[in-house]
Amino acid sequence: MKLYNKIKREPKDFIVEEIPILEPKEEGKYYFVKLKKSNVSTLEALRVISRLLKIPLKEVGFAGLKDRYAITEQYLTVPITYQIERKCFKLINNRWKEVNSVNFEKEMGFCLEVLGYVEKFLSLGDLKGNRFIITVKNFEKNMRERFYKNLEVVKSYGFPNYFGEQRFGSVKSRDDFVLRYLLKGDFDGALRSYFFGKSSVDYWGDWRRLYKTLSPALEEYEKDLIRGLMRGLTAEKAFRILPKNVRLMFNFAFQSFLWNEYLREYIEAKYPFERVPFINNWKLSYYTQVYDIDYLRKLEIPYTGHQFSPVDKTLKKIIKKVQQKYEIKKEWFDKEVGGMRVMTDGLRKAVVFPEELKILEKTKRTIKLKFSLPPGSYATVLLRFLLKV
């Protein structure tokens, strides 16, 4: 992917620091813990913590999922009934082991540090935002003029608040969303899509062969799922073996795709725009000029529109058009499927303005940026526009 030829060449090129809403105190019901990690996803680090420190995963609170290919700092809450202290872990010979320290610029691992105590359990979204320091490499001469021009657009008008590629981790091939199978009651198709996307596989149904082929690259819960199929579980019961936060990602991925389409169509209907490549051959459209920025700045776009019906007539038509295109049925809204409620409604801001946006360093081939974004906004979405890649 072209964007990643410019960023994330090394973990130190992409540094993320969570801006917490909680302040540690001297007493409280929960430990307030800083998790610093490199080359590890938040969920993987949490699974290791749960397994090695004997803390049930549901007892560990966290506010957001941070990038794997980065050096990140975020915060956790753990009930004081469990034992936790400063610890570091590294992946050595494919096994997680406790170590004295981690070289975050070169090694795959994470460290925990207890900062104090808090009264509140952290849940998703419980943060002020995220602070980024990003180094762009291969910053060629022909890119600079475009970069500085687009930087002025962002300073004046912000940028479209699209969901970034991290939101689509469960999409293995173009338009192949696990949730679309679930909504039709096709759990076998959902599992096939989960493991293979739209790729054809001639041994689907031969669960022992599937296990033998895939197991080296699978998470433990994915192995449990296939073992369940080997024992004769139905596809629906096997699907429920997946942790709920994984199952919910299928819903988030599809709804986020639809929401991105609403915003893209809205921008193209109202403003001068440029299309920029995204994942799976999708496109994102970025405005280059806005004549009603005070209005756009306040605009919120619903996920489905069945509970939060838009007043904006253009937006209302676009939501209807996109839902018709992807054959969305009203009976799917708030549907219970696979042990979760899906296609729920909500509101998300159409645009976001980065704060503290500045250039820290620049050379002939690199530029280092610093900025902060509110919860749920993506640095990679901003960078795609600035670099047009």
For the structure shown, list the relevant keywords:
11 helices; ten-stranded mixed beta sheet; alpha+beta; 389 residues
Explain the layout of strands and helices:
Layout: E1 14-20, E2 30-38, H1 42-53, E3 61-62, E4 71-79, E5 87-92, E6 95-99, E7 109-118, E8 127-136, H2 141-157, E9 159-160, H3 178-183, H4 187-196, H5 207-214, H6 220-230, H7 235-239, H8 244-270, E10 273-277, E11 283-287, H9 293-298, E12 300-302, H10 313-325, E13 335-337, E14 340-342, E15 347-349, E16 351-352, E17 355-362, E18 367-373, H11 379-387
Parallel strand pairs: 1-4
Antiparallel strand pairs: 1-8, 2-4, 2-7, 3-4, 5-6, 5-7, 8-18, 9-16, 10-11, 12-15, 13-14, 17-18
Helix pairs in contact: 5-6, 8-10
